[in-house]
Amino acid sequence: MNSLTNRKKVLESKQMNFWERIYLPAIINGLSITMKHFFKKRTTVYYP
Amino acid sequence: MDIAFIIEKLILISAILGISLVIAMYTTLAERKFAGFFQDRVGPNRAGPWGLLQPLADGVKLFTKEEIIPTHASTFLFVLGPSLSMFTACITTAVIPWGQDLFLFGRQISLQVADINVGVLYVFGVVSLGVYGVMIGGWASNNKFSLLAAVRSASQNISYEIAMGLSIIALLMMTGTLSLREISEQQAGMNWNVFYQPLGFLIFMICSFAETNRTPFDLPECETELVGGHHTEYSSMKLGFYLFAEYINMFVSSAIMASLYFGGYNYPFMHLISNPNVAALIGVAVFFVKIFLFIFFFIWVRWTVPRFRYDQLMKLGWKVLIPLAIVNIALTGTGILIFGK
Q: 3-state class of B316 per DSSP?
């Protein structure tokens, strides 16, 4: 079936390389994603 | 020991205690607001403009709740647990150098409550004592789940103390002194220790996340594991003490990291300012900016990284961080031999 969004990644099962094993680049990537959300517009609706 | 000295120290102690309590209070608000911002929502904003009176509301709530002491719980130990946690959290602030000396009223006032020459060792001793608060609280609750959670939390605490101490040893090889004031003075200008000890700083930061029970190491106190952890049976102000002690610990850990690795009250071009009082006050402001940035980093990581499982946590502490810290010591040693730092 066709994919709904074009963000799918085919899963590959190979050993993690050094940079993936120390998890720090992944954490830094996650931190940048969270930071992007910090500056986006908030979706809270203010009821009177 | 004249009266002026005693009065000066009393004012300094009450100011530091007051500031650390107020900062811990507003850290609870900052945590909730920033958690909201990171999750595309607004945090608490009803209690005052931008929710600024929310910590006061929380304090009043905790004061007016019912004090429950479980049956067959040892009352003395039950009250001692949170008191010990709060006590060890507060007395660590005694050795942190908040700024250079001020020259007021013809006296030289040092902005550090106790300039002992084993400052770093004192900090580690107090951190080790902090384990008692958790253990006593878990034991005195007369609850199997509290006990299990307290045991887990204590084992996490003592495992990461070792790696923290080892990473500091590499720093001490460079500075040659244990006194926090001298370590801060050696980092004048931009000569910060983090540029010479990046691996040591990384290990110390990970260990301080574990010591303050902050995510990703907050297994002892998250809600999905063993109910509330070691503070399940606590209500009202005793629970308030446990939660508050965690935030004060966060503040103190940030202050220690800032003064050991990020230059404390030093800032670039500080030698260009002619009036020493103005330089000292700007140094205090810069120190607090660094502390707030670290607290923001604590909150940022909490809402980004998932929690470690208990065996992953232990494996990280013993099998990864301790060898890394030892390698760091060896590297620092060869560096000192080659460059004579």
A: helix
Residue ranges of alpha helices (H) inside A1-48 are 18-21, 24-39
Tell me the pLDDT tens digit for each residue of B3-44: 888 888 899 999 999 999 999 999 999 999 999 999 888 888
Interface A–B counts its CB contacts (< 8 A) at: 31
Interface test with B, best of A34, A40, A41 (most B CBs within 10 A): A34
Q: Which of B304, B308, B315 best probes binding to A when mutated, by most A CB atoms within 10 angstroms?
A: B304
Q: Do B41 and A43 touch (CB under 8 A)?
A: yes
3-state secondary structure of B104: strand
- Tell me whether B36 touches chain A (CB under 8 Å): yes
Beta-carbon separation of B41 and A34 below 8 A: no
Q: Chain A residue closest to B320 (CA)?
A: A22
pLDDT of B294 strictly over 90: yes
pLDDT at B1 over 70: no
Please give the C-alpha separations between residue B10 and each of A22, B6, B14, B15, in angstroms, as whole numbers: 47, 6, 6, 8
Our CA angle for B95, B96, B97, nearest 5°, is 115
- Residue B107's DSSP bridge partners are B104
- In this prediction the ipTM stands at 0.79
Confidence band of B334 (pLDDT split at 50, 70, 90): very high
Residue with tokens 């020493």: B276
Mutation for testing the A interface, residue in B38, B302, B316, B319 having most A CBs under 10 Å: B38
Nearest CA to B187 out of B262, B291, B285 is that of B262
Q: Which residues of B touch A18 (CB under 8 A)?
A: none
Distance CA B34, CA A37 (A): 10
Residue B223 has what pLDDT?
Answer: 57
